[in-house]
Amino acid sequence: QWQDNANNETGFAIERSSDNGTTFAPIGTVGPDVSVFDDGGLAAATAYCYRAYAENGGGASGFSNVACTSTAAAPGYGLDFGSATAYVTFGDPAALDLPQFTIETWFRRTGAGTPNTTGNGGIANAIPLVTHGAPEAEGSSVDANWVLVIDDANDVLAADFEDMATGANHPVYGVTPITNNVWHHAAATYDGTTWRLYLDGSLETTLAVNQAPRSDTTQRAALGAMIRTDDTPLGHFQGVLDEARVW
After folding, report:
1. What is the pLDDT along the chain (247 residues), one digit of tens a residue?
2. What are the boundaries of each domain within the chain?
3. How far apart are CA 222 and CA 241, in angstroms?
4. For the whole model, what pTM was predicted?
């Protein structure tokens, strides 16, 4: 907002600086007798400086005084899995033994992490996000019920489960490369017949499977790792997770 001292302007032009007022770039204009500009889409916890000038048919006025402000920090708190041994486990609650499910989480990957396979015919280089199970034994109650991961080979979202009938894995892969140090939303759904994989709200992939997941697994549910029945963690996600949900 600025003081409108002109009486014959045709409008105002606004410029913004993100280096404490050293350099400015134009970001927008408003009409005459307007003294406020709404600047959206800014980064959290960042300082910005602004200046404005009036315009009419005769040219431009001098710049206004520079005004600086900072945006608020991003709200909320996530779980930071920066340590090579950090993970969260929920044990094996019956509520997570699911034949149909939606898995979702916000995540920000900050480093390489440690990949692990999800089993024979599964994802060879899986970075675990939200999981219920781990590669342990085929065709038994220690197969994985479901896992939501990053495929480290191609840096895309992926998911997998092992089925009740044969113990076979049924991996599904996204197509959009995941950028580090940026928040993304991941979701995977299985309705009993078809995988659907979403990144940042956009459908990445569908895959018809027509098999029942291993919903009788006795393995552990976890964030940031895959957990065997003996509580051994496999794989590691290096980054931050927030608002993980399974339903």
Report:
1. 888 888 899 999 999 999 989 999 999 999 999 989 999 888 877 889 999 999 999 999 999 999 998 887 666 678 999 878 899 998 888 888 899 999 999 999 999 999 999 999 999 999 999 999 998 888 788 888 899 999 999 999 999 999 999 889 999 999 999 999 999 999 999 999 999 999 999 999 999 999 999 999 899 999 999 999 999 999 999 999 998 999 8
2. 11-70, 79-246
3. 12
4. 0.69
- Token digits for 40? 């959206």
* Topology of the domain covering 11-70: Immunoglobulin-like (2.60.40)
The domain 79-246 having CATH identifier 3.30.43.10: the answer here is: no
Q: Are 49 and 16 in contact (CB under 8 A)?
A: yes
Whose CA is closest to 219, among 91, 86, 87? Answer: 91
Residues 239 and 247 sit within 8 Å (Cβ to Cβ): no
Rounded to whole angstroms, the Cα distance separating 164 from 99 reads 10
